[in-house]
């Protein structure tokens, strides 16, 4: 259950102000059909994070404990820095897919936007840390994405205007920094337990 709760929390925070959250807002404004947009986000996230989680679980099996220890610690610290860099969305990620309908456009745009994104990288790292609980990590990161994106689709810019995105980014960065330092200074056996 720890893997699920931590994954949900980290991704929900990391997603605030992220380009995929901005994409959710753009899709909601463009199509004004929240249900197929939310379903497209859900399916794209499950597929994307299942693949990312599989990579994280694979990394755990094929790297030595010492290498994994350093990779996790440095990756979490890099995520802390990355959280402080604001995201922008390219109109190309939305355009050109409308022939697939609202659901298809959302699915493709969201899946592509999530490739190499902060939350996908976080999913890889969390699955590496909690490899025995891979399914819980994917469920948690997917729930975190939905908690951050579904309200944006349903309520649009009303929420975005009230949430101090910069504060959320700083809090997220601090959390990732602490996780990185814990990973670097915790004995490997304890870290992977």
UniProtKB/TrEMBL annotation:
Pfam families: GDT1. The keyword Magnesium does not apply. It is a multi-pass membrane protein. The chain crosses the membrane at residues 38-60, 67-85, 97-113, 133-156, 168-188. It is found in: Membrane. The keyword Acetylation does not apply. Keywords: Membrane, Transmembrane, Transmembrane helix. GO terms for cellular component: membrane. GO terms for molecular function: metal ion transmembrane transporter activity. InterPro entries: GDT1-like. Its main location: membrane. Belongs to the GDT1 family. This is GDT1 family protein.
């Amino acid at each position: 259950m720890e893997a699920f709760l931590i994954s949900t929390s980290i991704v929900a925070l990391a997603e605030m102000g992220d380009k995929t959250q901005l994409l959710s807002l753009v899709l909601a404004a463009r199509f004004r059909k929240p249900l197929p947009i939310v379903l497209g986000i859900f399916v794209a996230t499950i597929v994307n994070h299942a693949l990312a989680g599989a990579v994280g679980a694979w990394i755990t099996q094929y790297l030595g404990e010492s290498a994994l220890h350093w990779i996790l610690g440095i990756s979490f610290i890099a995520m802390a820095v990355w959280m402080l860099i604001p995201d922008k969305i390219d109109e190309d990620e939305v355009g050109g897919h409308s022939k697939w309908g609202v659901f298809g456009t959302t699915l493709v745009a969201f899946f592509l936007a999530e490739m190499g994104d902060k939350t996908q990288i976080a999913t890889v790292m969390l699955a590496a840390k909690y490899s025995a609980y891979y399914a819980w990590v994917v469920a948690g990161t997917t729930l975190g994405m939905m908690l951050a994106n579904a309200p944006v689709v349903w309520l649009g810019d009303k929420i975005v205007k009230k949430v101090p995105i910069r504060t959320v980014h700083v809090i997220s960065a601090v959390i990732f920094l602490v996780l990185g330092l814990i990973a670097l200074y915790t004995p490997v056996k304890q870290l992977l337990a």
